[in-house]
Amino acid sequence: MRIALDWFRGFLRALDPRRSLATKVGWLVSVLSLIFAVAAALWLGNMTQAGLLTQHCRQLALDTEEFAAALDQTFASRMQSLQAVATVLGSNFESDTQRTLHVVLSELQLGYPELERIEFATSSGSVIAAIGDSSESLGAQKTWLAGGLKGSWIGDASRQSLQGEKSPPPHGDEMPIVDMATPVRNAQGSTVGAVNARLRWRWLEQYAHELRESLRHQSVPEALVLDREGRVLIGPESFRGRRWQSARIGEIALFEAAQLDRSVGPGGGRAYVPTVSEERIDGGQAFLVSRVDPPLWSALRSLGWFVLLIEPYDAAQQRADRLWLHIVLISLALGGSAALIGIVITFRLTRRLIRLSHSIDAVGAGQAQHIEVPPGFDEVTRLGKAFASLLGTLQNERGELAALSADLERRVIARTREVERLAKETRYAAVVRERLKIARDLHDTLAHSMMAMLAEIRLLRKLFVVNPAAMPEELTRAEQVAHEGLNEARASITRMRFNAVRDVGLGAALTEALKNFADRTGVQVESDFEPDAAGFAEEPAETVFRIAEEALRNVERHARASRIRVALRDLGGGSLELTIEDDGVGFDSHAAHAGHFGIVGMREQAQLIGAALSLRSVQNEGTTLRFTFGAGPEIHT
């Protein structure tokens, strides 16, 4: 167990970039490889994701065009058969053989069972032959007859028979009546009537369903057929009979018909014009909607029908996301492999440098007397030779220095005994004063900083359990607190080395401190310094300034004040008074505060210069600190 633990510790040290140049280079190669891999993966993944979505929309547009063309072809093939029957009926019209007419119509129905009614009517409207459903609407008959006498005709007879009124939603028995009619001409070429065929609606729905199932799309979309009023005639049960309502998401369609190789219809015009866009249906789920604009010569345009293919947008997006994820994972795997190869190559290139560093470490630890210089002519060999030469010089100088040190030591011993005798009497007092001064400085700087860092650490521990996502921001804050503590410690050391108060006077030093306080906290600061008192620069001024700094620090960290007022007055008779007031939350000044030495430190500093310090604080009414001290018989300005 111990061996495994030592091996693991050694492995962790080998990964520490602070201990090895080879490790630094290896980490650099790894990070750069992973960064390039991630960048390439994101770029290639996004590009592939967009291309896949475009290809998906293209296939959906082709499927919509294929669906509409197949539906049109269905009507066209039956119209051609009806035209052939019309030719046969025209050639037998003069013979007036009723049985012959019925045979011709029966053969047509036998070939196309989906035609529920076939009839032959004269120009005057008399039906001379009919098979199938005998129920007939007079208005519908007039519609197909009028259209059939003029030429080949297809239409929704039920809607046109309403004389322009809007029809109710199509459902049940109220489904559209799809009629096809064509003129019947006799041997002389005169139009003597028209033959009509009516499609079974249930068959048309089943045929549309079979067309949808035959699409070559990855996931079969839903197919909808809408009438000219936007009502769904054919489609899922949840849509059927309802008016189509959707809103496009984004102003630009995902796919336009111009991206397809266009076919042409009769007369050289463009055939079907599909467009794919992302739309939200009834304010709810987002769909990819592919709609086709049928050409003028198509049966769909004659019926006033439009074809839609819809597919949930999330389904198409998920396929693109899966491909994007695969590309990212493969790129990361390649980047990781490249990083490992780079690390291996790095360690092989730095082996000689590592051996040289181990040799130098052994000399430094006293385990060897000479540096092993690696063979070769490169920088590592030259560096080893330089170290070996330097080591020889140092060893020679060390011997000379040892002799000088022995003589100096004898002299120092004699002088030390004399100094110890003279300093013994004053050492204890000096130590006590220095301890108090250092304790005050530590409280003013490091103690406050450590308290702030302790609060940040406690908050980080809570965030680690409650909200790990907020950890980076709070870590940044902890780093700022540490920097602030370091700056305060440095400032404290600077104050110990230099006495700015003695140089510029108490008023100027307080003014600079208040300016920094206002910039740092945003608290409104008011100051009132009498000119004679502001120029005080004797030795006690430094202690007064330290007390003021501690008071400002307490206001910043505990008072939550919005305004602070500082006044320095001359009381006469060689006495000055410093007053610091804030409008913060206040506290109980008579209660003990374990672990907090700010007020205690201020009182101790006041005692050192024979000054009086009074503190008044009321909960939610602020705190007033009044410090009275002597300035000698007269104030130096």
Short recap of the structure:
The protein has 637 residues and is α+β, with helices and mostly antiparallel strands.
Outline the structure in words:
The chain has helices at 2-15, 21-91, 98-111, 138-150, 157-160, 201-213, 299-303, 313-349, 351-364, 379-466, 471-497, 500-504, 506-521, 531-534, 540-559, 598-608, and strands at 115-122, 127-132, 153-156, 178-185, 191-199, 222-226, 232-234, 246-248, 273-281, 286-293, 306-312, 524-529, 563-572, 575-582, 612-618, 622-630. The protein has a 6-stranded antiparallel β-sheet. Residues 161-173, 262-270 and 633-637 have low confidence and may be disordered. The chain is an alpha+beta fold. The chain contains 16 helices and 16 strands. The protein has 3 domains: 19-336, PAS domain (Beta-Lactamase, 2-Layer Sandwich); 377-498, no CATH class; 501-637, Histidine kinase-like ATPase, C-terminal domain (Heat Shock Protein 90, 2-Layer Sandwich), CATH 3.30.565.10. Helix 2 runs antiparallel to helix 8 (313-349).
CATH fold-level label of the largest domain: Beta-Lactamase
Give the overall shape, derived from the CA principal axes.
elongated
Number of strands: 16
In whole angstroms, the N-to-C terminal distance is 76 Å
The assigned structural class equals alpha+beta
CATH superfamily of the largest domain, by name, is: PAS domain
- Name of the top-level CATH class of the largest domain: Alpha Beta
Radius of gyration: 49 Å
Residue share in β-strands: 15-25%
Estimated helix fraction:
55-70%
The DSSP helix count reads 16
Largest sheet features: 6 strands, antiparallel
How many distinct folded domains? 3
Strand order of the largest sheet: 7-6-11-10-9-8
Quaternary organisation of the protein chains: single chain
> Spans of 5+ residues with little confidence (pLDDT < 50)?
161-173, 262-270, 633-637
Average pLDDT score: 77
Q: What is the CATH-assigned architecture of the largest domain?
A: 2-Layer Sandwich
